[in-house]
Amino acid sequence: MNILKSPKIFLITFVLSIIVMGCKSQSIETSAPFEIKEKTYFYWVGGKQGTQGTTVRIVGNTKSLNISFSKLYFQNHEYSIVPMFNGDKFEIEGNFSEFKEKELVFAKDPSEEFGNQPKKPIKKIPFELKDDEAVLLYSVNGLEGFHKITGVKRLDKVYRP
């Protein structure tokens, strides 16, 4: 039996091939319409007990006036960013902060455990990155791209009041 002679099999094969060809994979680009001049990060600790986080800073030059930056992925976290432009130069800073929750109480008396909250699941980013690597989501004229940044330099920890 020829596979193309059966209309059902042909239709299923055709639909599956359209679906497979239509899937878009996230490809990370190593060249982009901008140049990174400085890439640093530092951990910080807040004055309130249990408050801590990470700040990432990226400085560079752009070749395009129609460029925008929307997200940064770094050390298994997604950072919302607000880029600042000055002519062809840009500066991006992203902050991730977390509050260490109090420990869970385990006791024989269930009333002592009242108030325990389950831990929030850790959100997984769509990239496998080393500790000194980041991925920047950018858009030029509406076309999105991902740019991999390597060698992000760690600065000293900052203690905030």
UniProtKB/TrEMBL annotation:
This is Lipoprotein.
